[in-house]
Structure formats: structure tokens, C-alpha cells
Amino acid sequence: MTLDAALRDEMLAALPNLRAFAISLCGNPDTADDLVQDALLRALSKIDLFEPSTNLQAWLFTILRNQFYSAYRKRRREVDDPEQRYTQKLGVRPEQEARLDFQDFRSALAKLVPEQREALLLVGASGFSYEDAAKIASVAIGTMKSRVNRGRRRLAELLALDDGGAFGPDGLTRAALQGPE
After folding, report:
1. Of 80, 69, 76, 62, nearest to 26 (Cα)?
2. Mean pLDDT by 10-residue block, N- to C-terminus, for the chain (181 residues)?
3. CATH 1.10.10.10 residue ranges for the chain
């Protein structure tokens, strides 16, 4: 169905009533104008579905009402975040690289002699002091320090790290953990 002059005039005559209805639904004239425009565009795109013997204004009001409630349901699922604060918190760094690094680390740790692995796990992973780790392993403190030192150096070799001090979080993670200064 094409838009003839009579149908166009009837649509234009319905505009003030459509706008008043839209304002009563949204409470905001600017939003109401957008809603009326969207409803008219939808009506024009579906004009071939309109039956000429029926009430055009009722058809337009139904389209406008449906557009409003569709937008309302959509807005209920969305979070108002104009400054992107919430969205930025949702960002997640990719896990692939960290997962691969961890797999490499576990593989290299398994290649250490048991005494060095035990020393690193006690001091590095479990957080025990050298003294407490030495008591747990029933060795002298100097022996525990030596095992930890040799274990770190061997891990650095196995992981092809230039410096044994490179263990731990990367620079970006360290900066995030420190927070603002």
C-alpha cells in the first residue's frame, strides 16, 4: 500500500494527540518527540499492513505504545553509565598469557630437585619465614636460604628469565596493586 494524500493528512492530524500520549507515557517532551518519530517511522515502514477501513489513529497509538514498552523493557536490563565508570570495571584482561605462564612455571617447578622445590614452596608460595621453613624441613636456616637461592636461579634458567627477581606480578599488575599515590 502506498501513502496517499488522505492517509498522510490523517497521520499529520494525529501528531498532536500522539505527542500528548507520548509525553504522558515518558514524562519528558524530548523523549516523547523521539518516541513519536520512532512510531511514525515504524508505521510508515509497515503501512502496507494497515487496513484502510480501520481507525488509523488507534493503529498509530498502538504502535507508539508498543514502542514505548519495548524501550522500557530494554532500559530495565541496561545500566545507566554515561561516564563509563561501571563499564570500565567490567573489563577483564585476557587470561591466556597468564595461564600459559603458569603452566610453564609449574613445569619448571617440577624439574627442580625436591629439596629446592620444597624450599621455594615453603618460603615463596606459603609465605613462611626462612626460620619457620627451616624448622619444617628440619634443616639449618643457612641451608634453607641456600636451597631457596639455588631454586630461584634454576627456575630463572628453566623459564629463560634474565633475572631471578622477575618472578611475581608483571609491572601493570604491580601498579594496580599499589593503587593511586
Report:
1. 69
2. 81 93 91 94 91 90 93 79 73 72 87 91 88 91 94 90 56 53 49
3. 96-163
